[in-house]
Amino acid sequence: MYALDFTPRRVCPRNIHVEVSDDGNTVGNVVFDGGCNGNGKAVAKLVAGRPVDEVVALLAGNNCNNRGTSCADQLTIALRKAQEKARAIA
Fold first, then answer.
1. Per-residue pLDDT averaged across 53-76, rounded?
2. Beta-strand pair 15-20/27-33
3. Domains of the chain and CATH, by start
4. pLDDT, tens digit, for every residue of 27-54?
5. I need a labelling partner for 70 at 20 to 30 A (CA). Which of 11, 22, 64, 78 fits?
């Protein structure tokens, strides 16, 4: 697994910890630090074990309170960064 700590922008969580498979294709563990605890845990459970590309296709561009982003949208950015780094190492 490749792990990345991501600092999201314009949302409540202070950090999003993501893990992806060594090839960068599959979401592993996700932990939101801050924000809506129940929602963060729910999103983490829903995306675990799913393909990164599928999660990004579903959640990218999700908007919260006209911020132009959301926790889910920021998660997709974190996953793409982790995916890129995992593939660079592999």
1. 97
2. antiparallel
3. 2-89 (3.90.1010)
4. 999 999 999 999 999 999 999 999 999 9
5. 22
